[in-house]
């Protein structure tokens, strides 16, 4: 049995259209879905929405920051850290007219950089850097 939220909302919508009361809908859904059933207050809230004329069972988009801000143009704009390793997120945010949180997300998640001694550095070494580091370690091992 599909216990997804949208499936349960569709059932709520159907039963409400048949004239079932919210408490009866909750009891019936609790019998079928058990622990995966929506909360009682959620079922009552969706019943009110359907009574008010709502027909869509999917969530409406929430107000707030648009997710389209993180795109290739803003990611390439954040590459300012390559030119100035000591630049901070506030300065980048002002430069690109985006929030500090988005800048922080791009730097850490998309670019893979972190702040060390007030400079932005890659979190992971490149293959050349790994090979060079291994060579230094091997020469140190032979010296001892």
TrEMBL record:
<dbReference type="InterPro" id="IPR041426">
    <property type="entry name" value="Mos1_HTH"/>
</dbReference>
<dbReference type="InterPro" id="IPR052709">
    <property type="entry name" value="Transposase-MT_Hybrid"/>
</dbReference>
<feature type="domain" description="Mos1 transposase HTH">
    <location>
        <begin position="7"/>
        <end position="53"/>
    </location>
</feature>
<dbReference type="Pfam" id="PF17906">
    <property type="entry name" value="HTH_48"/>
</dbReference>
<protein>
    <recommendedName>
        <fullName>Mos1 transposase HTH domain-containing protein</fullName>
    </recommendedName>
</protein>
């Amino acid at each position: 049995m599909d216990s997804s939220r949208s499936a349960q909302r569709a059932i709520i919508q159907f039963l409400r259209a048949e004239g079932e009361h919210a408490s009866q809908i909750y009891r019936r859904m609790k019998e079928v879905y058990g622990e995966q059933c929506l909360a009682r207050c959620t079922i009552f809230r969706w019943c009110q929405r359907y009574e008010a004329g709502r027909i869509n069972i999917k969530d409406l988009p929430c107000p707030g920051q648009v997710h389209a801000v993180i795109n290739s143009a803003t990611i390439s704009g954040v590459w300012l850290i390559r030119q100035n390793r000591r630049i901070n997120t506030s300065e980048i945010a002002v430069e690109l007219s985006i929030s500090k949180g988005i800048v922080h997300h791009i730097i850490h998640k998309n670019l893979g950089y972190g702040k060390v001694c007030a400079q932005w550095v890659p979190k992971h070494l490149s293959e050349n850097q790994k090979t060079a580091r291994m060579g230094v370690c091997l020469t140190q091992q032979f010296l001892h």
